[in-house]
Amino acid sequence: MSKHSIFLRIYAGLVILVCLVAIFGFLLVQIINYQRAQEYRESLTDGISFVISEGVARQKTEQQRIDWISDASDLLELPIYYLDAKKIDLSRTEEKRIENQQAVVRYDAEKEIAYLVIGVKNDPKHFLYIKVDSLGERQMKALPIFILDYLVYYPGQEQEYIEEIQKHFSYKIGIQKIADINLDSEQVGRLRADQSVILYRDSATVRGTTISIISPMPNQSGSVLVIGPVPMFNWMPFKLAAGITLLSMFLLSLGVYGLIVPIQRKLRQVNDALNVMKTGDMSIRVPVEGHDEMASLATSYNNMSDHIQRLIESQRELMRAVSHELRTPVARIRFAMEMLADEDEYEYRMQQVEMIDKDIEALNTLIDEIMTYAKLEQGTPSLDFEKIVLVDVLEQVAVETEALKTQKDIRLDPLSSDIRVDAERRYLHRVVQNLVGNAIRYCDNQVVISGGIDKITRMAFVCVEDDGPGIPEEDRKRIFEAFARLDDSRTRASGGYGLGLSIVSRIAYWFGGTIAVDQSPDLGGARFTMSWPARRFKKKK
Fold it and tell me: Which regions span the lipid bilayer (predicted)?
């Protein structure tokens, strides 16, 4: 597969896109969970912070407050400090929480330690500062004690004040009968022994694992204080997972759309160009961008458009030229027939018949040239490449030309019989024959034929030189056009129809080579050189 393959780029793009979306999703989950975890910590501490603050506020003297805080610290097994408010810098958000009787939670992720800042009711000059480095069963069992300490001031009104402080808790607290709670005998026994019970409940619902704390109510036999259920923090709840999944799918869709849009745009360009082509306008070309399959498609379309346009122009030129070329011999034949009808002399009639025969032969030659040119111009001809001895073809053309008794000096440069090239023998013979015939018409006396394989480029070549007037540099490209003749004379002594060099040009093209003309360094006339790959690589099936 090519490194520029559009499919490889799409696959690589998809892999990169999936990795980027996965990284983005992971980071997004971390960011969201950081905020969720902070909110979760605050929701757990808000209620108990309010109760602790109320407990401190009930102490009448500062010493009593310090003693109460010391007892609370021992109970929680956590350090609690009674600090001057000026020693703690609070942000606006934290100040707002303190005003709302909520706790400020500062979490150190590296040390895994949380620091709680709690305001003291009716004492704006001091804060409670709690360092929470661990949270276990000891701390959970202490929570009901603070709530019960708050309720002890409202005997007989516990239910009303539970409902009053419920707004400060994010989880449910309430007083229930033991019989209403699904407990085993051991748990009931512990409650009757004035011990708190912690319940862990796993649920397949969205809530997941929850914790409930049950503590016996003093002076209320059969009643217990129930805190919870408190949901454990879930790092990947259903809503978050669903949201991240949907967002990831949306981003992947956008990414895939971004990968497909360039292909869609290029296909639209080709489709629009084809629609324009159907109207007969061959001037539209598709821009070639990159080196992938779409660029190859655009190149193929442009080449096809160029070829079709060239065929149309060639057909028009062919029709104009053929109509002109046919008129002359047909007119001569008609004139000769008229003369033949009016003439009784046998020798003169035979002379006219001979002229008619020459014109018919000229017509056959013209038709053969036109058919060969059209076959080479319209599409890929059936070429049977084989290894041939180059000197054999050159010698054959030289011998055939000598047999015509042109009175010209035809010389073949020495060439080893070991030189073999890949070529279609019939078309290579036609190339050399046309070049030599063209040189015979224009030379003064001498024509030189040569060939071989270039040692540097490994290209095979045949070369025909003459000592004629040569070809002006500005006309060297035009002579390979169909029916092009530099003197524009249709009746000159040199003859020809202007198709020979065009046929050579097309054969060179289908051989995968080139044809060029310049000045012969030795003879001074024109030098035609056709070169093509000496070895053709067979395509694997």
Answer: 6-29, 240-260
* pLDDT tens track for 494-507: 445 567 788 888 88
Of the candidates 370, 390, 386, the one whose C-alpha atom is nearest the C-alpha of residue 314 is 370
- What 3-state class would DSSP assign to 440? helix
pLDDT of residue 432: 93
Structure tokens belonging to residue 230: 């408190």
Cβ(329)–Cβ(363) under 8 Å? yes
Tally Cβ neighbours within 10 Å of residue 154.
Answer: 13
| Distance in angstroms (rounded) separating the CA atoms of residues 221 and 335 | 143
Task: State the average pLDDT over residues 54-72.
Answer: 88
Write the DSSP assignment of 275-301 as a string of letters.
HHHHTT---------SSSHHHHHHHHH
Which residues make Cβ contacts (< 8 Å) with residue 452, sequence separation at least 6?
A: 390, 415, 419, 460, 461
DSSP state of 456: T
Domains identified in the chain and CATH numbers:
1-132 (3.30.450), 136-235 (3.30.450), 383-533 (3.30.565.10)
State percent of the chain over pLDDT 90.
Answer: 20
- Give the model's pLDDT for residue 495: 47
Across residues 47-74, what is the average pLDDT?
A: 88
**CA dist list (Å): 64 to 60, 71, 84:** 7, 11, 17
Residue 412: name the closest of 427, 431, 392, 428 by CA.
392
Distance CA 45, CA 97 (A): 12
Model confidence pLDDT, tens digit, residues 74-92: 888 889 998 888 888 889 9
DSSP labels for 9-78? HHHHHHHHHHHHHHHHHHHHHHHHHHHHHHHHHHHHHHHHHHHHHHHHHT-SSHHHHHHHHHHHHHHHTS
Q: How far apart are CA 189 and CA 26, in angstroms?
A: 47
Structure tokens at 310: 């060239």
Residue 217 contacts residue 164 (beta carbons within 8 Å): no
